[in-house]
Amino acid sequence: MFLEEKIQKRTIVCVLMYVIIIFGVVYRTRLQYNPKLIRPIPVLTWRQLRCNYVASEIMSKIQQPGLGNYTYLFFYSAIVYVASITGRRPCISRRSRSTPLDAVFDHGLAQMDKKTRVCPQHKFTEKKFGVYDRRIASLVNTTRDKLLVLNGYFQSWKYVQPIAGRLRDQLRFRREVKEFVSKFLYKSVPLGWNGLKFVRVGVHVRRGDFLRQPSGYTVADEHYLQRAMSIFIQRFHQVQFVVASDDIRWCQNHIKSNSSNVNITFSVGHSAGEDLALLASCDHTVMTTGTFSWWAAWLANGITVYYADYPKRGSQLRGGMQLEDYYHPNWTGLM
């Protein structure tokens, strides 16, 4: 009797094992021949796996304690753009343990280390500052066993727009930065405006070093700011302007309003990264000059008014740029 029970148990186990094996074969077969589940796997050599990246040469040379003028974001977008058209991975080349972007964004890009730097390189240098370089399309023909290194500033919306969705997904503000923005905006709601529908317009005023820069670098005056702000006041019933600047005292003395439907709030004593996140969280943007304004407007992704006399007309800086490449066509220029 005991022997018969033992045989029955072994028989059951064998049957179950046989069923499992058959099920596994069928499932693997379905996976193998289901075209929806099959993805082509690129066959790369060891060197291609190690060198199949895009980096920025200038980005690796500039070392700043903060985000500064936000040229870094143009470098970032350029390497992501080139990576997207060449089938490579974008990476941030760096000399120190972190880059200025790391303090503000959870960007998730790979970091270039010493092993990657020994790869053979193919360098691409842009022809002019503030001009979209159409030669960049030729990089698709570069062999994958070479590291693509971009040399230039690549300050054009034409590098940014084709990868806009990807950039907005990757340029996520760090948790502590988002918490700062939430607290600031909550506390800055004007008295009596709780529960009311109003729009926020970020205003960035670049002065500081631009007051001392050579010809071509301009600074917007209060008359431009008043005209730019009036566009939003006329369009919307209630508007809160959130002002960030490297010269906030000047802004407090020159940006004012007596209307009960208009509120002006100043960002005082905050870092450049916090100010950028604050402006990016607004509905619309008033730009002045510089790349900080440019990226604040692009991240906010609303109605944008920019200072049309930057660079200054007739200057050497203006002559070398193509404004239709630098400023987004949906933005409105105003003097």
- How does the overall form come out from the CA principal axes? globular
Largest sheet: 6 strands, parallel
Q: Per DSSP, what share of the residues sits in E-state strands of 2 or more residues?
A: 15-25%
Query: For this structure, what is the CATH class of the largest domain?
Result: Alpha Beta
Total discrete domains: 2
Spatial ordering of strands, largest sheet = 8-7-6-9-10-11
Sketch the topology as an H/E string, one letter per element.
HHEHHEEHEEHHHEHEHEHEHEHHE
Q: Rg, please? A: 27 Å
Distance between the termini: 102 Å
Q: Which class best fits the helix and strand makeup? A: alpha/beta
The count of DSSP E runs of length 2 or more, i.e. the number of strands, is 11
- Helix fraction bin: 40-55%
Q: What is the residue-averaged pLDDT? A: 83
Salient structural properties:
alpha/beta; 6-stranded parallel beta sheet; 2 domains; Rossmann fold; 335 residues; 41% helix; 15% strand; 5-stranded parallel beta sheet; 14 helices; globular; 11 strands
Tell me what the structure shows.
The chain is of the alpha/beta class and 335 residues long. It has two domains: 46-170; 175-334, Rossmann fold. It is 41% helix and 15% strand. It has helices spanning 2-33, 46-51, 57-61, 71-86, 114-117, 157-160, 164-170, 175-187, 222-235, 248-254, 272-280, 291-300, 316-320, 323-326; strands at 53-56, 89-93, 110-112, 121-125, 147-151, 199-205, 239-245, 262-266, 284-286, 304-307, 332-334. The strands form two sheets. The chain has a six-stranded parallel beta sheet, with helices on both faces. It is globular and about 65 Å long. The N and C termini lie far apart (102 Å). Residues 21-44 have low confidence and may be disordered.
